[in-house]
Design a protein that fits this description.
The chain has 9 helices and no strands. By secondary structure, the chain is an all-alpha fold. α2 runs antiparallel to α3 and α6 crosses α8. The protein starts with a helix and ends in a 6-residue tail after the last helix.
Length: 203
């Protein structure tokens, strides 16, 4: 007789990897299809699905056997997508002060691809920043932390954090200027980066 999901999860909690594979086989197709509708991208849906199953395995002890597994798993996956969308919105909020102002455009696949390319380029430029500026900038603009929280985490005064975030934004503008002007991101940004990295200071 086939084990129920709850019975399989009991084995998973005991460290049975084979039992977990049973759950993956049962639910992966439906979960990927669901996430594909949410994301509009099957490849990304498969990645999120894998992350959801990983979270399920890592936190198997939190599963309440009174709840059906599928809704529980889908809730994990949905929360991952929500977090991704929140992060995307924060990236979009980051763009106005590092690119030339453009008129608002309706949402479309082409626009999403364009924004995805921009985000990739911003991420590359961000990684070129000295850690002194990159860490508070990421915590503020991408993670949505308050200045107070950042200052506490990085053991700095709030005024120092605000100054470093401002300088980090200025340096991103410098790094990305060739891209907005039609230049090559790869060559021009890489040439600009060493001068900025030279400004690196320790916390």
């Amino acid at each position: 007789m086939e084990l129920t999901d709850a019975e399989v999860m009991q084995r998973v909690r005991a460290g049975d990897h084979d039992a977990f594979e049973v759950l993956v086989d049962r639910h992966k197709d439906g979960l990927v299809n669901y996430l594909t509708h949410l994301r509009g991208d099957r490849d990304r849906a498969e990645e999120v699905s894998q992350e959801a199953f990983l979270r399920l395995f890592q936190h198997a002890h939190r599963y309440d056997e009174q709840e059906k597994l599928a809704p529980y798993l889908y809730r994990i996956a949905t929360n991952l997508v929500r977090s991704e969308f929140r992060r995307m919105r924060r990236w979009r909020a980051l763009l106005p002060w590092i690119q030339h102002a453009e008129p608002a455009q309706p949402e479309s696949p082409a626009r999403r691809i364009f924004e995805s390319e921009i985000i990739d380029r911003v991420q590359g430029a961000l990684e070129s920043l000295p850690l002194t500026y990159r860490a508070p900038l990421v915590l503020r603009e991408i993670e949505g932390w308050s200045y107070q929280e950042i200052a506490k985490a990085l053991d700095c005064r709030e005024g120092t954090i605000k100054s470093r975030i401002s300088r980090g934004r200025d340096q991103l503008r410098v790094l990305l200027a060739p891209y907005w002007n039609g230049g090559s991101h790869g060559s021009r940004v890489d040439r600009a980066a060493p001068a900025l990295v030279a400004e690196k200071r320790s916390f």
